[in-house]
Amino acid sequence: MTIFLLIVAFVINLVLCFKFASIAEEKGHEPKGYFWWCFFLGTAGYIMVAALPDRGYYARSMKNINGDSGKKPTTDLAYEERLLNNGGWKCPSCQKVNPESVTTCRCGMPKC
Hints:
Elements: H1 2-26, H2 31-41, H3 43-50, H4 56-65, H5 74-85, E1 89-90, E2 97-98
Antiparallel strand pairs: 1-2
């Protein structure tokens, strides 16, 4: 009976690990690493994935670099246009549009 419960707990943990790895991927993070965090840490790993920031725009732009359609969703284009109209700036290195208050792009390039 004890072995049966251990096997059931192991299978449930595996299913949850795969689910939380896919959640991490949807948030723009590497799923493989977070699968193992959840596998070894259990509930603490699940909480960690739930607390991950959504990389949103960055994750979608990286997929475009890796061979997806290359088209940005219109919401991103509208957001970028709004930023540029309100004094934002476009990074010459990575082409990311930053708000006016940001002085250094996430790629490390300072505002010109």
